[in-house]
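@channel anyone free to eyeball this complex?
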Amino acid sequence: MVCIRRGIKAGTALLHCGDGNISPADFSGLIEVEKSATQTTSRGIGNLIVSDFHEEEINS
Amino acid sequence: MAKIVIDGVEHEVNPDNNLLQECLSLGLDLPYFCWHPSMGSVGACRQCAVMQYRDADDKEGMLVMACMTPAADGAIISIEDEGAKSFRSEVIESLMTSHPHDCPVCEEGGECHLQDMTLMSGHNYRRYDKKKRTHRNQYLGPFVNHEMNRCITCYRCVRFYGDYAGGTDLSAQASHHHVYFGRHEEGVLESEFSGNLVEVCPTGVFTDKAFSENYSRKWDLQTAPSVCVGCSVGCNTSPGERYGSLRRTVNRYNSEVNGYFLCDRGRFGFDFVNNSDRLLEPVQRVDNTGELLADDQVKAFIKEFKADGTIGIGSPRASNESNFALRAMVGEENFYAGYSDVEHESMQVLLDLASDTAFHSPSVREIEMADAVLILGEDVTNVAPRIALALRQSVRNKAKDLADESRIPQWQDSAVRELAQHDLSPLSIISSAVSRLDDVASDRVIESLSVVAAMGHQIANKISASAPKADCSAAHDQVIEKIVEQLKAAKRPLIIAGNSNGSEVIRAAANIARALYDFKDNSAIDLCLLVPEVNSVGMSLMTNAKNPLGAALKKLHDGTAKRVIVLENDLYRRASRAKVDAALTAATKVLVLDQLPTSTTANADVVLPATAFSEHEATYINYEGRAQLSFQVHQCKKQAQPSWRWLCDAEHVDDLVERCCNEVPGLARLREVLPGENPFIAGMKVPRQSHRYSGRTAMTANVNVHEPKQREDKESVMSFSMEGMPAQKDASVHAASWAPKWNSNQSISKFQDEVNGELKQGHPGCLLIERKDSSGSYFKAGSDSIEPSANQLRLVFSYQIFGSDELSARSKPIQARMTDAYIGLSPQDAQKRDLRQGDVATISPLGSP
Amino acid sequence: MSQQVIASTATKARRLSADEIVEIEHEMTLYPDKRAVGLEALKIVQKHQGWVSDESLLGIAKYLDIPAADLEGVATFFNLVYRQQVGKNVILFCDSVSCWIMGCEGIKSYIKDKLAIDYGETTEDGDFTLIPVPCLGDCDKAPVMMVGPDMHRNLTPEKIDSIIMDCKTIQD
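replying in thread with the prediction:
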């Protein structure tokens, strides 16, 4: 799931592994991010504490 | 000290406090609602009225609110005066006019401050016979229920939620008879401390939703003093059990650690204990199916592991005793770290710093005292939430200074806030993304991880020229200069970092603290280094620096080691899938002990069920090196045992603690957390059940009408019984706070030396790590120079209070607040990749640093 | 269970009009703190919209960058910030002591019958809302009431007729 926030430094990707199959140990240092064809999600990111990033979502 | 006279008796009191607080410290009963020991006075409820006299000749006196009146030397007051008593009973009568009197169906009933105070104030007959005002309740999310009709408008909820915890979505609305406490509209309470409303509210407006769904009265819960296993802060808790399931967690006061408050992970994360997936029997995997093991089979199996060629992998979420038992079984040289190699490396740096005399590792209470804070690269709210709450109090130290200058007592909460307005002590945050503390930050720099570290080194260099210089662009010179000045000017500066993202940031943070140490003529500087798990520190003290997890996996893979015991750990969260797969496939036998099934248990030959935190007695060591004892609350059904019991012959936790003291250098003082030499009063143990515990002999009558024998607890100073001596003296076994006339959690004042003081003869834990005689030297500046090129991105791990902790993520209420895995991107980076909010993305690694 | 979660921005903020913004901006020059402008902003929006809808409230909160919950606290504290839609003319009818002595009860039932509304209600055509107030500070000319910005004194049924007639005429 992609979560876009103004308050993230360009060039940095924040990774939250959730309780799915992503292991933090599989990644470190540098990564690439691409759009995925699949659209399967269970929880979504609606539960992110809304003011977590003290700004509104950028939906457009 | 000042001398005051209360009802003709002279008392010594602290003149810096108000009369209410001092009366409670003296153990006197004076009713109150709006005052809270950690939130000060606002004088909203008028319940604590007492009669004050000008001098000995004054027979008339005048009514004053005890919470708004200083305990000044020579004050003469009366609590028992008829005028004061009748005023208090009229106040409570008016507060109660619209209260629904629904105690029998209210979750607060039996531990309700309003019940206690109503009785204490002498209002026992209702004269008001008109219509009561009623309110509509709101849906407030999965944690907290809302029942506004019970409200007596003490304003404690909004004072905690907004003023104390910085929440913005709960407010007082409307006026006079219609005052309403709620959100602007229905929805989840956003604050990660919302669960405290349950304890802060003196009545049943805010109640524990998860508990309501599986409810039991306070006096029917079996409780014991416990320690939260959700993160490395080690907040003290009182979990309550009934009918074999854990029902709720409430705060347990510890003056040094959590005080009166818990975070929502700690309060609602216990439910994994009740998870229906719990491992409850020893199972051997035979051709992909599980086969139950009998006792002798397990013994034979363990014996097989006691041969050469066996290695053990410890766990930062398991107790000292279980880690030690494994280490003793396989030998120190064969005991490996149970966290990732990156974490292992940073943990070594951290342990080194822990014994350096230049630093002091501050407790949560001490963090609240900081008058200038710098957070370097860590998301405190999500890694160690309770510390974020303490930092919110630290920024108010400026307000307290201003109050002192204006001679306003610090407990005059609303006056002090009014005086200071937005004037806060400095708190600067330098990290790669915004955080939940930004609203109280004086400066906020968002930079890549390497720049964060470089800026740290630069700050150190500017404070003391002996600290190494760093390559740092001039872009941030101004803010660096400002932070340097703030830290230098502070009486008690605090530097916070953590090991969420490697060790370079920790090195930078240590250099800043060391520079301050030089600058401040060698007085130790508060350096708070956060780690993610409850016993990260304990396990690392037992692990040889040369034994990272990677080495264990390699040994298994190349056949140097044949058998492996994995203690309460999912290795797939710690090392790459390929490496773990290779190691577990190569091993001839894999034994895993755990509470819940994981990818690791799925690949084990034998899985032994381990008890959860509430089912065994254990010690843990928190981020500051504080050892704490957590008692067993209830018995585990079926065959789960503490991991150490599967692995060694020790009979008591005490035996293992004793061996830890003797055999692990860093743990030499661990025995100090055990209950005193003679915890028994008149040969009686401390009961886990209250004296009102009901239905004990009938609880299992649906199964068997014979009264079961009460299980004896031979190991602990506590008993699974209501008989015995409730803890009055030794507060290390102080689980459920109760005193005559005080059924609610407010009874805690009866156990403290003074309000907000230590528990009487209390045990705030024991700081294990001893400082050396001399201080170390500066780290060389910066080597984290991984700069992304073209399409690459620098990865930063983002912790989430709800979801990042492995065990609490399997608790139902927490699951209701969890998100999917996500990747956070800046708008520029997202646009480059044609990604929009909520899109699904694939991430691929590009090698390690 | 997770499906139950309601995002906290369920109601969408209304974009404030240019006129509203100009007036709010002016108020902002008069106060040191944005939060303090909240009440003035509510009054400005009510002046333009007749009342303060949820969408308007969020719009103000967003524009001032203050928590919606706090602004709601201010809005609901004051009876005369209307959080429900009101009629084109709001009748603030005094039923305090002096007016009561001077027979306001009779006047009130006259209004009630004429407009077919009670306290807190709005006429079906949306022209009038009747709200009681404790005192309008004009006791020597009791009974009194206010309609919009205008004060009406020494009320009689005849005067009520003409006030209501006037309101309707002005409207048309």
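from a first look: Residues 270 and 808 of chain B are 6 Å apart (CA to CA).
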